[in-house]
Structures
1.
Amino acid sequence: MALELYLDLFSQPCRSVYIFAKKNNIPVEVKKVSLMDGEQFSEEFGKISLIRKVPALRDGDFCLAESIAILLYLAQKFKTPDFWYPADLQQRACVNEYLSWQHSAIRWHGSRIFWLQVLIPKIMGVDVPQDKLDAALEDLNGSLELIEEKFIQDRPFIAGDQISLADLVAIVEIMQPVGSGLDVFEGRPKLSAWRDRVQAAIGQELFDEAHKPILGAQESVKLIDGSKMEFFKPKILKLFM
Ligand SMILES: N[C@@H](CCC(=O)N[C@@H](CS)C(=O)NCC(=O)O)C(=O)O
């Protein structure tokens, strides 16, 4: 029986899991959970994950949340090529280091720009003050600098000569602010060259397919009836206002 992957490609961690499964020919049935329609709060999805966030995985009776846990589960269950999660102690440590760091850094910093520039104006009906955007951009730039100087350094990829889970998890997060119209690669030749290598390793077609929704988000979000996204308001007030 195929594994069920619950996801919405608007979401960065969903894209990493989706790309990983497709790239490695892992048999999965994709079940879309539309975040904009609030389907993460449905009774049906609650049976898959009480965390109520995507991605989530169901493998028979076994349900798993959290993208990193899912990626590692898939890598181990399907014995994907070593380079994704190298057996070499220090290479694996580099992957683990990046995966541990990203949660509280680039993940939030890239995501925040998307919320401030695309979702909050739509849902709250107001533009976000420039000083909030400037502060968010400063944080994002700090994270991008660390990715270049600390994690990529002079290597082709984060763990060495080949793509790993670290690069995959990094690229999907870095693309989130790009979806709000911000060219994060401008003036960053090292990051751009790394992005090109990651895209080539994933395959352009799969990369583009996974990123189509987020890269079209500025237009598609305009068409959504904002009153249908009221359920996001408490979260916005708590996290951003
Ligand atoms: N740490 C989790 C984060 C998952 C997450 O934050 N998912 C977001 C989309 S990017 C979500 O489902 N949000 C729904 C909500 O907050 O209502 C992971 O890596 O899987």
2.
Amino acid sequence: MESKVADAPPQYDEFCGPSKIPTETLYSSPPAAVITVQQPNVFMQGWTQTHLGPMSAMATCPSCQARQFTTVNHEPNTKTHLLALLICIMGGICCCCIPYCVKSCQTATHTCSSCGAYIGSHQN
Ligand SMILES: [Zn+2]
């Protein structure tokens, strides 16, 4: 059985020949370097603490990784006691409890509203 020879014009091959682009050299990439991923825990804690304010804020829990609004608890700090002592010395003994009622005089402690883990704190 004679096989039919394709009657393709030889000019076609000559036309396509020089236009062939060596794709191997174009798409050859250097071997991917093995990148060691470090634990971002320290970075995450620093990021959340810098963005936490006196009010509830959106933060990612470092414990359960839940991203939601934090639960804020205001606790008196050293500045609160000093301010109360100062008011008491100046004669306002009935007003010395004001710093304990004013939230801006206290430390805002942010905890996870899901698992209760400590996320950060804000102090004026
Ligand atoms: Zn949590």
